Fold this protein.
Amino acid sequence: MTSSMITFLTACLQAAVFLILVCFSVRLLRENGRALVVVFLTFFFSLWLLSDLYWVIYDFIRPDSRMPFAANEIGEASVILLESAVLCSAINIRPASGGKQAVGALLFAAFNIALWIAWSGEWIEDILIGVIFAYLLYNSACSLKILGALKTAEWISVGIAGFLLIVVQAMTFFTKNETKTLLDTTGYLLLTAGVFFWALKLFLSWKNHRPPVELLCLVIALLAWELTAKYMSDGYWYILFMTAETICMPFLYLSVRKVVAEQ
């Protein structure tokens, strides 16, 4: 089975998960109609479901053909905005609340945008998605800083990992053959380590019964890192990160449900 076929099946599985989560979110919305975080969550799951269905149908009708800038990119941008909206509706984020962490998040996003443009050459699309991506990273960094979800050593580790990731990815443009393969593998390992780091933080916070809003912030941070990983990968690595992203979605729903229950 080829990687493209596995990607197609993974997208179908993700769409099925979103369909189930939309049903749960609608029920939660009926029970907590005034909770804005639930409203945004329901739109978030619904829009991502539609975006996945669009991709699946397009790939079925026109297999192995490049999808132009169209509804899927618009849907993807809207999904990222709604992800930020879910977070901002649960915690009050002020412009100056992120400090150095917020600046680091914006710089990391800016370098990602530069890499996307270098890879694809699509300036308008990459800048549009990149600005929204930067907004998500900014809100994620600010919320984690406000809640004290990470220790100083952990912030430093995240910063170093992000810096190394950008350097490794940039160096692939100037190398060939075995060296490029080694750099690509190093980048994938850094991305995988980041997934494990955020997943471990989420697990420990859940186990230690940390405040629901902190759980929500950690889920969003994990999803933001997985989004970064998807944009930096292809083939089987892309499938791996997409699968990890799908696994995290129920935890997003559960964390929002905890936040609403505490209100």
